[in-house]
Design brief:
The complex is a heterodimer of chains A (296) and B (798).
Chain A: H1 2-13, E1 18-22, E2 33-40, E3 46-52, E4 54-55, E5 69-74, E6 79-84, E7 90-93, E8 107-114, E9 117-126, E10 133-139, E11 148-154, E12 164-171, E13 174-175, E14 183-186, H2 203-207, E15 228-236, H3 238-251, E16 271-272, E17 280-286, E18 288-294
Parallel strand pairs in A: 2-17, 9-17
Antiparallel strand pairs in A: 2-3, 3-7, 5-6, 5-8, 6-7, 8-9, 9-16, 10-11, 12-13, 12-14, 12-15, 15-18
Chain B: H1 11-26, E1 31-40, E2 51-54, E3 59-62, E4 68-74, E5 76-83, E6 90-96, E7 100-101, E8 104-106, H2 125-128, E9 134-138, H3 139-144, H4 154-158, E10 164-165, E11 175-176, E12 184-188, E13 191-192, E14 197-198, E15 203-204, E16 211-217, E17 231-237, E18 246-251, E19 255-265, E20 269-278, H5 280-284, E21 296-311, E22 314-329, E23 333-351, E24 354-371, E25 378-399, E26 402-424, E27 427-430, E28 436-450, E29 455-469, E30 472-478, E31 487-494, E32 499-517, E33 520-531, E34 533-536, E35 547-550, E36 558-571, E37 576-593, E38 609-625, E39 630-645, E40 654-655, E41 662-672, E42 676-685, E43 689-690, E44 695-699, E45 702-706, E46 715-716, E47 720-729, E48 739-748, E49 758-763, E50 776-782, E51 788-797
The chains are: A mainly beta (296), B mainly beta (798).
């Protein structure tokens, strides 16, 4: 759907459509706990962030939540303690040298104890697939895209339905972190519900490892000679895929505003022992694979 | 095929047969019938809604959509008066000793006193007939109204009528009394048009040069119409000049138009062929680089119609529409969509009092998308809805006080919800969805009856039956709580022609007129309508890729009841028409969507849909000045439209996306001298509702908007208002001149208002920095951000 939205957008530009930034007063709602727990099998320390919601326009760091006890336990009862570092609201599990978090195929339960309340969530650790190769080619300026090197990665979905992935790309170590750059795949295709399986990731997914550009000239240009390209593929649960898919929709509603669907809250898999609370955020454990290439 | 219908289905036929047999014998022997057609003397076009009045008995008849009238009266001599607004009255004395045929040709009022024809009917018909919540717009009016980019447009014009709204510029279709766009039945010569727009909602598919008559039913919908909940837009095409060759054409900013009409055999048969094409792509071609030379951006339509009078009792018509929007970006991606309709009609007079019409039509809407220029990596996707239908109708002119209409319709649908093939590195995957089939049948009986000088009424009953047919798959879903995606638990396949699910509805219709005095009447309208087709669209403006789907075992037919009450009054010898109407509408089984619904290429689509209920109510005030140098209308509507859906907005009522409580529109025309006409539109509408967040959720570095109150459409965006002006310079009048041309100058959105289409929320456009908080902003999106001037030139040769 992203491509359709793009085409519709181009059509709209044929008209005199315009956007203005406006000042809006928003209602305030109750403050909720937000759990940001996307952990993976990489060898680096794993972080779970505890925050709260904040007014949409607050435009400062959201408040942190201190003093929680966070444990992740697998189905065999093995547990991992996440320890808060310096009252930062960041809770960290540091692996021993050579150690990795978790085992593929196992189920994990997150438990957060805070002020007598318990927050819980569950995730399985699904297998990922390797990044087989990264290729690039030089392109002249075309369709509003500047000239430069454009990259593509190759990888193949594993057989069986229900495999979901988050593909992250880095240019010279800088994570491509704009909402438009969220690159997710379900069974090799762009979304669930259509029965594709075992495909080489389709072209739009392969090519979404290039920096997204809009009118902002200062933004990252396309790859240049000497640039390092890093691609990581994280396995996701179906629920985590849905979370990211819906988050991306909510973050990019303005990209084809005429055809936007109604704004809606993203789902969550965090539960509170307190029925009046609506904790937000997500917990998922991913396996990660990666590959790097240098443009020569 | 499963042809079983409930026995109830046949009931109206028995009633009819019985009724006609009885009534025929009841009509006394010394009654005679006067019947015939009323036509425009200049081009032979039949006139719809012209009145024939016999002074001696104060009774009359009105021509039907084919220009036919019939009246049975005792033997005698009568003073007959035929009238049609914009035409000279025709008076003659007629001796009726026996049943007689009389075709009347009426002459247009001389150009010197030519009025802008606003309602082409008997002057006080709005007060005296039984129609409530019905609006007619003459093409002459539509053509003089200020238009976006100077392109005369039927659908944009009806949006200025009370009770008709749109969510904004560029949005496809229109909303009638709180109904969604798929609840309007748009008919072109009796064939439905599934997508009435070119370039999203900017222009409609109707070529103004080929349109004769436009009528919109917002309520009090007669039994002869059915299949949609909220409105009927009945567009009738010209038949084509059967006296002489006429060429119309024009050049505007967007389209060039040309239409040719001519007799095939003079006074017996004629044709019209009308075409339009946009030419942005032709103009921009020299400026595109080589790699973009394959770019296409055009839309066109071709409208054809021909008719032939076989003899006094038989006349046949063939009409067709073919339109397409075509977009291609370089050789990489393409996108096109369009409608085709074809209808064949046969008017047959069984007797002077029994008029029949049989329509056979085919209508199709399809679209196609393609990405990827290379064979190894591509994606092709197309979808369509196609139907064939048979629709017989009989009108029986029982006596001057009763006009019985009965008929039926049988429609066979084929849905192709999505044929899609993706190729990735040469490996092809077919993710097409199965076709769906359905058969919709209906029969109806309607009587237009005059009880006395004060009371007249139109009552009818429609019985509709829908059969969702195989070959197909019946999915059964498990409920997962309100507003949650349902999971498929059972699958059952059906053979071709086997019935998967059937539905039926009885749809009573009624409108009553009570004449308070000669120029004032009170009217009441009630209708129940049922709709078995659903346009699956979850976006603010419908997109061309939205698919139509039939009712299934999981998607129930939508049903609505509406009651309307109106007071109609004409003032100063029909110079002013005024009306006030109130209505209440109740909707059931509205198609709604779970949050985050996946509507494309999803075989379990039905699990993403939920049922909602709706209610709409309002009051519509309307005043029109119809005569003089200054004409025009003012309409004000107060209305609300709300929905309730489990799992959305805490399962509480919320305003629908097109809820606009206040709506004011003013349209005026002023004749300056003999050659200039100046026209203006002003519209002022409440802003549409939108959903605003309260809070931010930070997740993986992204700032996601969050509404902690779980509300839908909780805020209203600023009001919409706009002024448009146009001036038309008519040619100098010279007798005998065969070529005439006019210039139309216009400005759309004169005072440069940036009306918001929506307000959305996003992270600011800079790349988020790791050690800085993410900034967010609210953005007002306007489709039209400036004033848009236009010039167009139209010509006519005859």
């Amino acid at each position: 759907m992203k491509n359709i939205a793009f085409m519709l957008l181009i059509l709209m530009l044929c008209f005199t459509a315009c956007e203005d930034i406006v000042d809006i007063e928003l209602d305030e709602g109750p403050v909720e706990i937000v759990v940001d727990a996307w952990i993976n099998t990489d060898t680096v320390p794993q972080v779970i962030k505890l925050r709260t919601t904040a007014p949409y326009f607050s435009n400062e760091f959201v408040p942190v939540v201190n003093g929680a006890e966070i444990t992740v336990t697998d189905e065999d009862g093995r547990s991992f303690e996440f320890i808060e570092s310096n009252n930062s609201g960041d809770y960290i599990w540091t692996p021993e040298p050579g150690e990795r978090f978790g085992e593929i195929g196992k189920n994990y339960n997150l438990s957060i104890a805070l002020d007598g309340k318990i927050y819980t969530a569950a995730s399985s650790l699904n297998p990922t697939v390797p990044v087989d190769s990264i290729t690039y080619e030089f392109r002249e300026e075309s369709l509003g895209e500047p000239e430069g090197y454009y990259a593509e990665f190759f990888g193949r979905d594993q057989p069986g339905l229900g495999d979901a992935y988050w593909i992250k790309a880095y240019k010279n170590g800088i994570f491509l972190n704009k909402p438009q750059e969220i690159n997710i795949a379900f069974d090799g295709g762009p979304s669930a519900g259509s029965e594709v399986d075992g495909l080489i990731f389709i072209t739009p997914i392969r090519e979404a490892i290039n920096p997204d550009r809009d009118e902002d000239e200062d933004d990252l240009p396309p790859y240049e000679l000497g640039d390092n390209i890093r691609v990581e593929i994280y396995s996701l649960t179906t629920e985590a895929f849905t979370y990211l898919e819906r988050a991306r929709i909510q973050l990019t509603l303005g990209d084809a505003a005429l055809f936007a669907e109604p704004p809606a809250n993203v789902p969550t898999n965090i539960f509170s022992s307190e029925p009046t609370e609506n904790p937000q955020g997500f917990f998922v454990v991913s396996e990660v694979s990666s590959l790097e290439a240098v443009v020569e | 095929m499963d042809l079983k219908f409930p026995s109830l289905f046949y009931l109206p036929f028995f009633v009819l047969f019985f009724g006609i047999t009885c009534s025929t014998s009841l009509v006394a022997q010394n009654n005679v019938t006067l019947s015939g057609y009323v036509k425009d003397a200049s081009n032979g076009e039949t006139l719809i809604g012209a009145t024939i009045f016999l002074k001696e008995i104060s009774k009359g008849a009105t021509t039907n959509v084919y220009g036919f009238y019939s009246i049975s009266v005792p033997v005698g001599t009568y003073s007959l008066e035929a009238s049609y607004l914009g035409f000279d009255k025709l008076a003659l004395t007629i001796e009726l000793n026996e049943t007689k045929k009389l075709d009347l040709e009426m002459i247009e009022e001389s150009a010197a006193i030519e009025e802008i024809v606003v309602v082409a009917e008997r002057e006080d018909q709005n007060v005296t007939n039984t129609e409530i919540s019905t609006q007619k717009l003459g093409m002459a009016t539509i053509q003089k109204m200020p238009a976006l980019l100077g392109e005369v447009d039927v659908i944009r014009s009806i949006q200025l009528l009370p009770g008709v709204t749109t969510v904004g510029e560029g949005a496809t279709g229109f909303n009638v009394r709180g109904g969604s766009i798929d609840q309007n039945l748009v008919l072109l010569d009796e064939s439905p048009v599934y997508n009435s727009s070119h370039l999203f909602g900017f222009f409609s598919v109707f070529n103004p040069d080929a349109v004769k008559d436009v009528k919109l039913y917002k309520g009090g919908i007669p039994a002869r119409y059915g299949g949609r909940l909220s409105s009927i837009l009945d567009v009738r095409m010209k038949e084509g000049n059967n006296k002489q060759l006429t060429v119309n054409g024009g050049i505007g900013f967007i389209f060039s138009r040309l239409s040719i009409e001519a007799p095939i055999v003079k006074d017996k048969g004629s044709f019209i062929i009308a075409g339009r094409r946009s030419y942005i792509d032709v103009l921009s071609k020299p400026f595109l680089d080589d790699d973009l030379s394959d770019t296409a951006l055009n839309f066109y339509d071709l409208t054809l119609k021909t008719n032939y009078n076989i003899n006094a009792r038989n006349r046949v018509f063939l009409s067709g529409y073919f339109g397409r929007d075509n977009f291609r970006f370089g050789s990489d991606a393409g996108f096109n969509w369009g409608n085709t309709t074809l209808s064949f009609r046969w008017n047959h007079l069984f007797s002077d009092r029994l008029f029949s019409n049989i329509t056979i039509y085919r209508s199709k809407y399809d679209y196609e998308l393609a990405f990827g220029g290379e064979a190894d990596n591509s994606f092709d996707w197309n979808a369509s809805i196609l139907n064939y239908a048979f629709k017989p109708e009989l009108s029986f002119y029982l006596n001057p006080d009763n006009l019985l209409t009965f008929g039926g319709q049988s429609i066979y649908y084929t849905f192709e919800p999505g044929n899609a093939v993706g190729v990735s590195e040469g490996e092809s995957t077919d993710i097409s969805l199965d076709k769906k089939f359905a058969w919709e049948n209906s029969i109806y009986l309607e009587n237009e009856q005059t009880l006395n000088d004060r009371f007249s009424l139109n009552y009818g009953l429609r019985f509709s039956h829908f059969n969702y047919l195989g070959e197909g798959t019946k999915y059964t879903f498990a409920e997962n709580g309100p507003g949650e995606r349902q999971t498929p638990v059972d699958v059952e396949t059906f053979e071709s022609g086997e019935s998967i699910q059937t539905y039926s509805n009885l749809e009573p219709r009624l409108s009553v007129k009570f004449q308070l005095d000669q120029k004032t009447s009170l009217k009441l309208g009630y209708n129940r309508t049922a709709q078995y087709l659903h346009l699956i669209s979850n976006s603010t403006a419908s997109t061309p890729v939205d698919v139509w789907t039939p009712s299934t075992n999981n998607i129930e037919p939508q049903v609505a009841d509406q009651i309307a009450l109106g007071l109609f009054k004409n003032i100063k010898n029909n110079t002013y028409e005024t009306s006030i109407e109130v209505y209440y509408k109740d909707y059931r089984n509205l198609t709604e969507y779970i949050e985050g619904a996946n509507l494309f290429l999803n075989q379990f689509l039905e699990g993403e849909l939920v049922n909602g209920v709706g209610r709409a109510y309002g009051v519509e005030l309307y005043a029109e000045k119809k005569k003089g140098k200054f004409t025009g209308w003012l309409s004000y509507t107060f209305s609300r439209t709300e929905r309730r859906v489990d799992g959305i907005n805490r399962s509480d009522w919320f305003p629908s996306r097109f809820d606009q409580p206040h709506s004011l529109s003013l349209t005026g025309f002023y004749e300056v001298g003999k050659r200039w006409t100046i026209s203006a539109n002003f519209v002022l509408n409440s802003g549409t509702p939108a959903t605003f967040p309260t809070s931010r959720i930070e997740q993986q570095g992204y700032v996601i908007p969050y509404n902690s109150l779980e509300s839908r459409n909780n805020v209203r965006i600023p009001a919409y208002h706009r002024l448009d002006l146009a001036a038309t310079l008519a040619p100098k009048e010279k007798p005998g001149k065969r070529f005439r041309s006019e210039w139309v100058f216009g400005v759309y959105n004169v005072y440069n208002r940036r009306n918001p289409f929506t307000i959305f929320f996003r992270q600011d456009q800079n790349r988020p920095q790791v050690n800085l908080p993410v900034r967010t902003e609210a953005v007002r999106f306007s489709v039209v951000g400036n004033f848009i001037p236009s010039v167009s030139w139209n010509f006519k040769f005859n």
